[in-house]
């Protein structure tokens, strides 16, 4: 039973502001039932045999050819229709000779089909306003293949065309030798790009945990041998076996009458006919214990894998056969009890980790894996050399949970947390996007379950509370850790840490139950917390001139933007910006930036430590996200109207009443040191570690600190850096969403209005200096330790920054989209890379410089020079020749739809107005956002290219496999 909330139209006024007309509603008259539908609302196929209350928003049907469909109206965002075509076949449906075919077909269906000439699919969907990759995509898993399209600004004509194109792709693909020749290198490149240490661990885990089952070696990407042996005939044989109407479901949620959506499904899919009898799904096998295993603790396969660049990580799984269930209320009540049992153990494990000891983190999680196994996973990250102690300590906590029932107080705490999780969808059901609702139904089909409306899910949960007794939770805990076989994988950084046999014996060894984390802690109340200060009234409350957004100013310098919006029920977004961000930290203290992102929130506030912060938010929807930006620090959260006042207290108290608990800092140090080596395992990891550092002129504040730099930090240094930062202004608060203005202002008076006056953030030239890389044709060469056929290439052109250039920054987005389309076409066809090539623009609004246009791709090492040459050629052509009007339209129409959809949410305006209380000009720039992103000319694009993309303006960087960087350079 998956909750699938009801949607409605969103904030029309926002679209008007963005100068985009509200898309016309399609005809609201119910279409006559088509002869093709043989089952519908009176017999919804999803709910047959289940007592789960059916969600009345979904309209179900089944065509005579066996194709099933479900459609519903959803107005979030306005005008959009989300279409999902699910094929009940993934990599587990392949034979040994067909490994990778399900995924290969996903590519080939986009290549050419009945209504799409070869290579024209991306442009066709772009003309309809859909952005490739985000709005148009597909995914292949072990058990299904799903084609996805989110069609913006849906009209009768565009919907008809979209269903036509999608039906041709799925029901009548070309699958020619030419198609195979074009797509095979792309799939092989995708295989290459997914390689490396993480992939080796994933492969090893599959082989160990699912030994003896097809899942052990059925990754969707396939193998080089099976893919290179593919022929049009063999691929078509797989297609014919599984791509048939009685194995497909079409799911649609959008801003259209359901009868209209049904009519499109029937029009374009009813004539699809299947040949022959439908094949039976293959057997996925069952977990089996080894002969002679102890029935009380049947430990099976174990493996120790050496990966020097990955942190030590141990996972074991208690495996049971997967069984098809009837998704009814009783089954879901059992799942809820399972969830309570897991939550109680996880909270105990987290408490033990926070206190310091043998493991950095640990967790338990039950999952039904690929309809192949019902598994309870236990994950452990050891801290230090003694992995056996870490495993023993984690198993001790679990053993205690298996020995004695939890207290009712523990259960009640987790019940309160779960109830909030079920209440929020009820409160926010009008604002859930249609894309999410459609995806939820697809996932329900994949796991062979149903969906239910949020209010029904909440009601079932609340009526089930009497079942959540200590004895019931104990019984379900024991079931979770009882299975056919237990298997394990231990990833270590050096040989001789452990052997397969030692791991097996450690899992079989009896452990003593550890009750030390069974603490009955009293609830924490906001009423007992110290006041921030004396409440103060705002000195001014004035309209901003933008919609109904108002600005409050307090005598202490705090400024607040308020926007109550009734169209977003149940959701309130809160942001607090303060201080000077990266630019206010002394470069010699750079390591503390990373540690602050890990530990600043956890170090506590007022009288609350990290555990107290957890307890005080029990049964509440509160958040505490922390982010470091160029020129500000930001605390953010999504909360509810009833929790807003306390959420504001937490943020204000963090600034005014910080605590400096040591354990979160020490845990952050350990985590940062462990993680560092993982960056070197792949080209993308190296870019994540170092690209921003080089883009910002090798400024230490934008680098990733080394383990040595992390080790040199101290609790005293952490407090010195962050205590000063927390006292620095200016402070800007944004509250957008569903709240009562009078109540919010009263809460602000007691919190942010009561803060002491803030010191200005440092503004010395040394701290604020903005460096950019010097132009060079010689790449900076970095090295990774991953697979030898992996590399990455980056070419970047510095641009600018600041509010004065905001229109230009938006026009640069058009230019980079043009560049991306050309680069993707050129590099994919020329070098056979996958979808990795892309170009993006950054423009720091808070700084006067520091922006860039950056093109990058993952590819094989020998192709790096070709990538640089190709990117240079495209840049020079954009300078020499304006794009055609048609090429420009392929970019501006999707951008128009992206902006229009984004502007249907308050979060869009929140991001656009960050810093507006200090820089009011940002308010005016919101009014031009749509035209800035979509109205331009070929000549304007050419001029922008000439300004920034000159050959002498760029610098470049390459990430090469260790040992090959000099060979490539020599060539």
UniProtKB/TrEMBL annotation:
Belongs to the peptidase M16 family. Residues 231-416, 728-889 form the Peptidase M16 C-terminal domain. Residues 80-217 form the Peptidase M16 N-terminal domain. This is M16 family metallopeptidase. The keyword Thylakoid does not apply. Keywords: Hydrolase, Metalloprotease, Protease, Signal, Zinc. InterPro entries: Metalloenz_LuxS/M16, Pept_M16_N, Peptidase_M16, Peptidase_M16_C. Transmembrane segments: none annotated. Residues 279-299 are annotated as: Disordered. Residues 1-27 form the signal peptide.
